[in-house]
Amino acid sequence: MTVSTLEETIIRTRDVSVYYGEKRAVSNINMDIKRNSVTAFIGPSGCGKSTLLRSMNRMNDLVPSCRVTGSITVDGTDINSPNVNIEGLRQVVGMVFQRANPFFKSIYENIAFAPRFHGLTDKRKLDEVVEESLRKAALWDEVKDRLRESALSLSGGQQQRLCIARAIAMQPTVLLLDEPASALDPISTMKIEELVMTLKDEYTIVIVTHNLHQAARVSEKTAFFLLGELVEYNDTSKMFTSPDHEKTEAYISGRFG
Amino acid sequence: MSHRSDTERQSGIARKMLSYNKRQWTENVTGKVIATVCAALLIVVVLSITYFIASKGLSTFFVNGVSITEFLTQIKWDPEGEPAIYGVFPFILGSFLVTTLAALIAAPLGIGAAIFMVELFPNFGKKVLKPVIELLVGIPSVVYGYVGLTLLVPFIREQFDVLGFSLLAGGLVLALMILPTITSVAADSIAAVPQDLRNASLALGATRWQTIWNVVLHSSLPGCLTAIVLGMARAFGEALAVQMVIGNTTKLPGSLLDPISTLTSGITLNMGNTIQGTPYNNALWSMALLLLLMSFVFIMILRIIGRKGLVNK
Q1: Residues 196-235, chain B: which have Cβ within 8 Å of A?
Q2: ABC transporter domain: from which residue to which, for each copy (chain A) (predicted)?
Q3: Using only C-alpha atoms, what is the Rg of chain A?
């Protein structure tokens, strides 16, 4: 498998379907996600984009009735294989949620959370990881004097960047962002977008968004979902100027959804 | 024509805004009066009980001339001796020891059970465990005491070759009694931890147990502390069940297996022997005052926990 480390594709889905009980939420998705790029998932509510995202780090395992068929590989390893250690998978594929969800702890403890559990106990190294993660999330300057204060004292936008920093601290390869800016004001949203664009040098980012402009601004590739199916998966520049599919064009121009 | 109808419309609107609906007004006032009377009655009752206990309890010191320090620190209780000695330290110590012992046993068990029923097996917890716990809360304390007297006391007697009536027996019976309280309050506070936080922790590659221990329990810490303090308050005030199994000697206990007395058992056992207004009777009221003060302390602790932020630094 030495080849796969050099490969362009980091996440590959083949015939992936996700069921909630009898209901099929996502059907037969085949897509290759490029390493160190930003891929946007767009589509109307209930189209299955978040469901697909959540099956990429197996957060769907928490839903008892949920079942995933087909194969999802991350760097060549099937993540649904019984040999996969789920905690290890979630270290590789980090996730940030729609609503900022900092722990009821200090800023420092929020960032140190994951590294601690993955075995980092040395205080000085922990300090370094915390600083580096906060710097990467463009939050360091705002919080460096108040690391011991409650994370809940931060503003909504800062909290969301804290959540991104918290995910970065475990040194993931992929970051899944599930509508990370949908609950934020325009300025905070802009900061998150800028952050996403700087982070792609180091991480592969998959972002679910309802904001089409956001998808156009930050992503290189865009996937359009409708009723659980992948309608079009294309370069973002092409998608927003001359999409191959008429449904895509209808959605992007605002005629439905 | 149109001018007239305009005027009519305007006067109609003005009438609506300026007149009162008599029924609405009466209902509104009656409701307010009833609620105020209920609240006032409650306040009057609480204040008068407090005043009554305080005046009775304090007269030991101000009328009968017993020294407060001696009352609290004397280790000898001999109200009918010559001279009478009113030292309630053994009772105070007994109350604290038995309450602490009960909390030490019941807190880990209760919180453990709460984790089990909320985090690990929510279905079983909701269908089986919760009703069982509610049932346990409803069992009268005399039944707990009777069970302790029948099973626990003989068991301790045989195991350790002692009398059996002991601090240990009291602590165990109380632990059993407050376990359901602690479990249900802790379970509620654990269930109130937002699912978002659990997801965040799991998504960061934490295991189920790491999530429960570091995120769920950490976030529900004030609630779990509240559960423990509520349990302790109940244990501190319990009289009957404790009295049946602790032996009620006023000697200071040397070990867990020695008999003790508590403030509550002291009052119930002695009150039949006393006559209103005597120093002996007043001394019992002083003990009641101590119990009242302790329940104020417990309430204050609960307030402080409630107000304190959730963050540990």
Answers
A1: 196-197, 199-207, 210, 214-215, 218-219
A2: 11-252
A3: 18
Here the tokens at position A63 are: 């839903």
Q: How confident is the model at residue A5 (pLDDT cuts 50, 70, 90)?
A: very low
Per-residue model confidence (pLDDT) at position B287: 93
pTM of the model: 0.83
Q: Distance, in angstroms, between B210 CA and closest chain A CA?
A: 8
> With an 8 Å Cβ cutoff, is B313 touching chain A?
yes
Residue B36 lies in a domain: yes
What is the spatial distance between Cα A139 and Cα A157, in angstroms, rounded to a whole number?
10
Give the phi and the psi of residue B258 in degrees, each rounded to 5. -85, 150
Q: Are residues B125 and B21 in the same domain?
A: no
Q: Which residues of B touch A91 (CB under 8 A)?
A: 204-205
Interface residues from chain A to B (CB-CB < 8 Å): 57, 59, 62, 87-91, 94-95, 97, 99, 101-106, 113-114, 117-118, 148-152, 163, 166-167, 170
Q: Are A104 and B310 within 8 A, CB to CB?
A: yes
Judge: A113–B206 Cβ closer than 8 Å, yes or no. yes
**pLDDT at site A6:** 53
pLDDT tier at B4, thresholds 50, 70, 90: low
Residue A12: strand pairing partners: A32, A73
Q: Which value does ipTM take for this structure?
A: 0.89
Give the mutation candidate from A110, A111, A113 for the B interface (greatest B CB count, under 10 A): A113
| Residue B309: pLDDT band with limits 50, 70, 90 | low
Distance CA B85, CA B101 (A): 29
For chain B, the domain total comes to 2
Q: Which residues in chain B are closer than 8 Å to A151, comparing Cβ atoms?
A: 311
Tens-digit pLDDT profile for residues B128-187:
998 998 888 889 999 999 999 999 999 999 998 888 899 999 999 999 999 999 999 999
- B148/B270 same-domain check: yes
Where on the phi/psi map is residue A220: left (φ > 0), alpha (ψ -120 to 50), or beta? alpha
Amino acid A124: pLDDT: 92
| Residues spanned by the domain of B175 | 85-307
Tokens read off for A38: 């930003």
Nearest CB neighbour to A90, from listed B197, B204, B214: B204
Per-residue pLDDT, A52: 94
Which domains are delineated in chain A?
Answer: 2-252 (3.40.50.300)
Amino acid at site B62: F
Q: Which residue of A has its CA nearest to B217?
A: A104
**B76 found inside a domain:** no
